[in-house]
Structure of TetR family transcriptional regulator:
Amino acid sequence: MASEPDKTLAERRGYHHGNLREVLLEAARRLIAERGPAGFTLSDAAKLAGVSPAAPYRHFKDRQALLREVAMQGFAELGRRLGAASAAGGKDGFLAMGRAYLAFAREEPAYYAAMFNTGHPGTTPSGDDPGFAALERAVGQYLGITDRAKVRSAALLVFALTHGLASLATPDSIATPGGLTDPEDLLDRGVEALLRGLSMPSGR
């Protein structure tokens, strides 16, 4: 009998036709974490999942479709985390969202890589994305503004800062080998400085 480490994903998850999609998505996440989004084929995912090379085509027309689905799952999970972090409200809730973003990038490298390295249309922040929508609400409340264009502009600046620090904090970052020592502190100070500047009257 095969030991647990030797079993395929399909065997460990009690594979049947009804959960083939989930088994393939889990295989893709593992391969992305090990090799990056461009480092595997659909056949590799099928092999890791323990199914035939033709099986993935029942759910995904090609490798890019599989990657897009992984990215969609990642955006949904990030949105859930950001929404939960913002529940505290006020400044604490706002800063908690940034820390939640950093934690997501650190804890879910496969999702993070798929979301921002696969050409998925959702990689540009949108009001339709639950995570970015939560950020816009928090920014608007923090700054006390309701103008849609101003809120979106401020949210994009906060997103750019947060995403940049999250990328620099990864151990394989070219710019900062080994990552950053305290990205949470850098983010807190950076976001507070950014929002102070945004809240000041123009020309001041």
Observations:
- The chain has a mean pLDDT of 82.
